[in-house]
Specification:
This protein is α+β, with helices and mostly antiparallel strands. The protein is built from 13 helices and 9 strands. It has a 9-stranded mixed beta sheet with strand order 1-7-8-9-6-5-2-3-4, sandwiched between helices. α5 (118-128) packs across α6 (134-161), α6 runs parallel beside α8 (180-193) and α7 (172-178) packs across α8 (180-193).
């Protein structure tokens, strides 16, 4: 691209380039001080356990599932509008069973949320009493709604499908925090009926390993280092890692690398189901494409089906909301910018 054209598209870019180079230099040095691969593995062995996974054969999979299906649960949301209270959020959640036929394959729930509706505005007002600002209140209600819908389809799947393995797209903490009542019901039922539940987190945002596996060096990233940074490339393909257990943990967590891609995923489980953990992880390894990004195929399928796109939202608005009302209440003026 010619210099003149680049300057037209990104005016005053020199300052950004300079800061980006500075960031690059910092990250490069920060990566270097983490030490060699073997040194990091030795450090990790002091704090936890590496364990191998293996791909299961057909008979082993049948033995694990005992004739019961696999179910994956995920949810999605998409918001249109300008700012509070002129927004509407579309939600949907899906529990997808591997059982074929008898109408038992998919369980859906849907909902919209708009602070313009009196009953929804009342929920916002309740949150405002917690000294949240309106945007924070609405954001919290969105997460609570999404978690409740996901827990609801999971609960219905337990009742209707009686799965052997129930996979959740995301960790358990989000469901327990935002939808505690229905989540505790789901947990109790799953533990009572021998349904193995795993919460799969693709984008690990926690920093619990920073203290256990410190990163040395002058940059002092130590406890500031996020788990994804510490674990990147640390595990071999088909390998898991578990920290030494802490007393009275209500939820266990292991980290696994299910493909050649060096990033790992986190898997939440209930300690009461520890005996079923390794067979379940081996099954996840079995259904994960070797050359993919390391996320279990079944949850990828559920995610693709449940995702609400901007195009779908626009179609819903165009077909079921008066255009004049959509323009008044939900079309941000900035969407009409010409430049």
């Amino acid at each position: 691209m010619e210099k003149g054209r680049r300057a037209f598209i990104f005016p005053q870019v020199d300052g950004l380039v300079s800061e980006l180079k500075e960031l690059n230099n910092y990250l490069k040095k920060r990566k270097q001080v983490q030490g060699s691969y073997e040194a990091r593995r030795r450090e990790a062995r002091q704090k936890g356990l590496f364990f191998p996974l293996r791909r299961l054969g057909r008979d082993e999979i049948e033995d694990f599932f005992r004739g019961f299906p696999l179910v994956g649960v995920d949810g999605s949301l998409n918001t249109v509008g300008a700012s509070f209270p002129y927004t509407v959020t579309f939600f949907r959640a899906l529990a997808r069973s591997s059982r074929v036929g008898a109408g038992g394959e998919q369980i859906w729930v849907y909902q919209i949320f708009s602070p313009l509706l009196p009953e929804h505005r009342a929920k916002v007002e309740e949150k405002l009493k917690l000294r949240l600002d309106p945007e924070e209140a609405v954001a919290r209600l969105r997460w609570e709604t999404l978690a409740a819908l996901e827990a609801e389809v999971g609960k219905r799947a337990l009742e209707k499908e009686h799965p052997r393995l129930l996979l959740w797209d995301g960790g358990f903490a989000r469901l327990e925090t935002h939808a505690p009542s229905i989540w505790n019901d789901v947990k109790s039922r799953a533990l009572g009926e021998g349904v193995v539940m795993l919460g799969i987190t693709e984008e690990i945002a926690t920093s619990v390993l920073g203290g256990a596996l410190p990163v040395p060096g002058e940059y002092g990233v130590g406890e500031l280092a996020a788990d994804r940074e510490i674990l990147y490339g640390l595990l071999r393909p088909g390998e898991g890692f578990q920290r030494k257990k802490e007393d009275r943990e209500k939820v266990g967590r292991v980290y696994v690398r299910l493909a050649r891609h060096p990033q790992v995923i986190a898997v939440d489980y209930f300690p009461e189901q520890s005996e079923d953990l390794l067979p379940a992880l081996n099954f996840l390894y079995t259904i994960t494409p070797e050359h993919g990004r390391g996320f279990p195929f079944w949850l990828d399928l559920v995610d693709a089906e449940v995702r609400i796109t901007r195009e779908q939202v626009e179609v819903l608005l165009a077909n079921y909301l008066d255009p004049a009302l959509a323009e008044v209440y939900f079309r941000p003026l900035r969407a009409r910018r010409d430049l």
